[in-house]
Amino acid sequence: MTSLCLATVAAARALDDDHPSLEAALRDVGFDVHRADWDDATVDWSAFDAVLLRSTWNYFDDLPRFLDWCAHVAATSTLLNPLEVVCWNTDKHYLGDLAARGIPTVESHFIEPGDAPDAFPDFGEFVVKPAVGAGSRDAQRYLRAQRADAIAHVQRLIADQRSALIQPYLREVDTHGETALLFFDGVYSHAIRKGALLRRDEGPTQQLFAPEQISAREPDPAELALAQQVIAALPFGPLTYARVDLLPSRDGPQLLELELTEPSLFLDTTPGSAQRLATVLAARLMSD
Ligand SMILES: Nc1ncnc2c1ncn2[C@@H]1O[C@H](COP(=O)(O)OP(=O)(O)O)[C@@H](O)[C@H]1O
Ligand SMILES: [Mg+2]
């Protein structure tokens, strides 16, 4: 029997809404399913045929340690998504690579440790967030009048040896929401709407991730076309799972984020989606 371990972390176990339906679907296709915390040093990862990254949602607190662990798993088992994908995708500098490949991407300015903290355009409203981050942690929205606070935010990030990312705030998200499109093995599966997460005059979330309003959504044709363009532009073969997060803008949808590491897959919103992922995993991992 092929064994598959779903990697999580203690603080995320109860919050991972995908887990029950994914575990059941994986059992149905014949996997021996396990679950373990990525930072649990007692786990023998070589005992599993494959390790699927799922709710490892504290990885950005110590990215080098997480990537070391990914490398260890990749060397002794099969890591999904693969190590090179995770290394590229855990730092939002990849947005620059995709913009260079012609993907309409939310305008992104990176400020590195050692750079001037005010070296970004005079936006009317904008967002400061860490280049390595998830769950909206350390992300905050600012108005032009709050630029001094925003520069102090950038300064805090870079003093901590983190790269900062500054983007214009795309206010169409306040009504249309964000659209996340899920692909399994490069094939579109389903999509959801996520309500806008950043409020004016509100500091970053203190929780593992900011509370989210999620509902199933039919993407509009421009959103589906852009997400497919992103998937086709990836410098890797077809990936077991990929999530493309888009924001609306006056000029059409733009790429906000590409989640290839530990995305929520919103399996509960769409009947059949957990089975589709389980089928993809069975085709990849089970020898006939
Ligand atoms: N440029 C932006 N315009 C509007 N909303 C944004 C922008 N950047 C981030 N947000 C809001 O903040 C949330 C978190 O930002 P995101 O880039 O997805 O980082 P992560 O999910 O990795 O923390 C988004 O889901 C969105 O609601
Ligand atoms: Mg996000």
Topology diagram in text:
Layout: E1 3-8, H1 19-28, E2 32-37, E3 50-53, H2 63-76, E4 78-80, H3 83-89, H4 94-100, E5 109-111, E6 125-130, E7 140-143, H5 147-159, E8 164-168, H6 173-176, E9 178-184, E10 187-194, E11 214-216, H7 221-233, E12 241-247, E13 254-259, H8 273-285
Parallel strand pairs: 1-2, 1-3, 3-4
Antiparallel strand pairs: 5-8, 6-7, 6-8, 9-10, 9-12, 10-11, 12-13
Helix pairs in contact: 1-8
Bound molecules: adenosine-5'-diphosphate and magnesium ion.
Protein model, in words:
Helix 1 (19-28) packs across helix 8. Helix content is 28%, strand content 24%. Strand 9 and strand 10 form a beta hairpin. It folds into three domains: 3-89 and 279-285, Rossmann fold (3-Layer(aba) Sandwich), CATH 3.40.50.20; 94-104 and 172-266, D-amino Acid Aminotransferase, Chain A, domain 1 (2-Layer Sandwich); 109-168, Dna Ligase, domain 1. The mean pLDDT is 96. It is α+β, with helices and mostly antiparallel strands and 288 residues long. The strands form three sheets. A five-stranded antiparallel beta sheet has the order 11-10-9-12-13. The protein has a four-stranded parallel beta sheet with strand order 2-1-3-4. A four-stranded antiparallel beta sheet has the order 5-8-6-7, covered by helices on one side. It has helices at 19-28, 63-76, 83-89, 94-100, 147-159, 173-176, 221-233, 273-285; strands at 3-8, 32-37, 50-53, 78-80, 109-111, 125-130, 140-143, 164-168, 178-184, 187-194, 214-216, 241-247, 254-259. It has eight helices and 13 strands. Bound molecules: adenosine-5'-diphosphate (ADP) and magnesium ion.
